[in-house]
Amino acid sequence: MKRLTLSALAALSLAACATEPTRFQPASGPQAVGFSEMRIEPGRYRVSFHGGPGAPPGQVQDYALLRTADLALADGYDWFRITERSTRQTGYSGSSLSLGVGGVSFGRHSAVASSFSTGVPLSGGPSLTTTLEVMMGKGPKPPEGDVYDARGVRQAIGPRV
After folding, report:
1. What's the pLDDT at 111?
2. Domain for residue 113, yes or no?
3. What's the total number of domains in the chain?
């Protein structure tokens, strides 16, 4: 019995490692890993990047910036200003393993035992989504505000992807 329990725990631990990795790619659905964007008007976008379970916040934020830089460059802009920024966390999604010990009673006979239960998340951790609302511009980058040079972002973050 002990060997069977340990084997099951080992198999479930390996399954926990099989969560979707965070890659710089278009999202295939609303909760899928990757980026998505919505054009609000010319030169204005809402860009989101949804990371996989356990992805570091810095990676998710960098990938949202990189997608924004790519959009700016594709549309002929030189820089972008972040007018609104938010990061949302969703809890552990997916399965959980619970182990427990208890008691039983039948007829005149009963067995009493203390109970213990624990849960092990199998999803790899919470998922983060960073959303940026941006305005894009041409020419020299304005010195004030939350403004980024699109080529500079592409050069700094692009090689790490």
Report:
1. 62
2. no
3. 1
